[in-house]
Structures are given as structure tokens and as C-alpha cells.
């Protein structure tokens, strides 16, 4: 296969979520000394962006997004150390966790894959993340954005508890706080004092980039 055919194949197979084939093509490309950045920026990311666009149009649903995301995640396992070696600049650092009392992680994991695909370094704290764990991780990793996920209406109040804890620790102004999850709305995000909210994975990536750009332009102003 030519490099062009490999890139097209990676795009097409990621789009339909054919994980074994995506991995196969990734390894084949590396065997031909193709650049890891090229695989990421010329095939994998555009494919995932198309997945997001189809989801927004209603042509794709959550299962299609998940299998495409998983296909890309397989390729990222191989590419991540190589990209680090080549010094590919990350867009920003994103700390993510499902709040205390909540064990749902499918949506969070999908968001993580999309963020990673868009060039973010993602630190995933998993589920049942207590306020003190968010604080310790912020101090350790110094992320640009903290994402909090809740799937249950009963765990949504943890957003406010976490934000209060950040304020108490003197960290609230150090990070951008984004919230999300099935029952969460923009109104609720505003009420708890979050900086951003997104309804789905592809919207999260766009919102995260917008918030980061705003923050950086304010800092440089």
C-alpha cells in the first residue's frame, strides 16, 4: 500500500470502528517509516471529527461514536509514546473524573478519547472521584482544564461541592472547570459556577479549545 492509501484506510476504518484493521494499518504505516504525526493529523483526527459531525447531524448515535473512539484508542496506544518522542505539542492538559457517588464512565471515556485525538494530554482519575482527590491531582498535574462528569441527578450536586473545595484550596482561578453528563444542562452548569458545559463528546472538544483560547488571550493581553 502507498502512504496515501494507508492514510485513507485509517480514515475509513476509524469511521466505521474497525479496531483490528486500524491497528493493523497503524503498524503497517510505522513499518514503512511514516510519521506518527501524519497518521494522527492526516487520518485519525479528521476521521473522529467526521464522526462528531455525523453525530451532530443525527446520522451517527452513541454506539457508532464509541466504536470509532475505541478504534482510534487502539491506534493511540501505539502512537502515544512515539508522539511524545517527537515532541508533538499538546493543545493543553485536561484532568477528568466522574464525581463521588457515581460509577458511570462510558461518556467520560468517549470524551477522553476525543480530547486525546484533538491533541490534549488527558489525565483520567476514573470514577467516584472525591473533592480531595481532584485537588491533589490538580496540585500534582497542574492541568489547564478540569472536567467533572455526572450521570445521575443525585450526584450532580457534587459539582458544587468540588468547586467549593477548589475555592477553599485557592485553586479555583488556576483552572478552567467544565461539567457534563446526561442529566446536566447549561443552566445547571451556570448555577454551580462552572466555566463550561458541553452536551456531547465532540462539543466538549470544541468548548475546551474555545475556553483555553479565551484564557490564553486574557493572560497575554
TrEMBL record:
Gene3D superfamilies: Cobalamin-binding domain, Methionine synthase domain. Residues 1-91 form the B12-binding N-terminal domain. It comes from Nocardioides taihuensis. Keywords: Cobalt, Metal-binding. InterPro entries: Cbl-bd_cap, Cobalamin-bd, Cobalamin-bd_sf, Met_Synthase/Corrinoid, Meth_synthase_dom. PANTHER family: METHIONINE SYNTHASE. Residues 91-221 form the B12-binding domain. Pfam families: B12-binding, B12-binding_2. It comes from the Bacteria. The keyword NADP does not apply. This is Corrinoid protein.
